[in-house]
Amino acid sequence: MNERLYKELKNIPILCVEDENGIREVIVQTLKYYFDEVYEARDGNEAFEIYEYYKPKIILTDIQMKNCDGVEFIKRVRENDLNTTIFVLTAFSNEEYLMNLINLNINHYILKPLNLKKLNEALIKYLNKNHKPIKITEDLILDIEKRELIYKDSEIIPLRKREKDFLQLLVQRRDSIVTYMQIEEELWLDKEMTSHALKSFIKDLRAKLPLNIIKNVPQEGYTLII
Length: 226
Known about the structure:
Layout: H1 3-10, E1 14-17, H2 21-31, E2 38-41, H3 44-54, E3 58-62, H4 70-78, E4 85-90, H5 95-102, E5 108-111, H6 116-131, E6 134-135, E7 140-143, E8 148-151, E9 155-158, H7 161-172, E10 178-179, H8 180-187, H9 195-208, E11 214-217, E12 221-224
Parallel strand pairs: 1-2, 1-3, 3-4, 4-5
Antiparallel strand pairs: 6-7, 7-8, 8-9, 10-12, 11-12
Helix pairs in contact: 3-4
Pfam family, one: Trans_reg_C
GO cellular component, one term: cytosol
Protein name: DNA-binding response regulator
């Protein structure tokens, strides 16, 4: 993994879910080589509580665990969240079993035992997916890596990080409303989001955009106009 990709992972929170203490300790120590924020859980119930509180961008979970297993945990996450990346650790490799995992909307499965090569492959896949330019409309492309909008293949519009993250959030949930609570949880990590700060942020972003693509849904949040 090159240095640029390695640095990008440092600021991404990850949750490790594994019921065997010794194995979990080894995995967590390995993850700390890549990530500054590493959370850990012993089963699906504890994992879901940590997930709801810390909102990790990546989840690395075992499947067979006591109490609430990995399948049940993933189902609970996916009820309202299709965006968090989920890697599954499994000792099983038969086709039927793996197809069942894919049906849970997981992003990558890793056969046990976990090693650096397998982990690197999964993380590079994650980073590449998040770097791919996103088509907002036929004329407007969001380049995540360069943090800019491209209008009609020629005009370049630089974005601040929060502006890029907000547009990415709208695209990811283009068929629904991005609520005020979701915006605060995803974009205002360092301080409380006031209504004045949000309105000022939206006003400044709209002034940058060549197209009117942001619609306010009163008392709920924002959605894309496409």
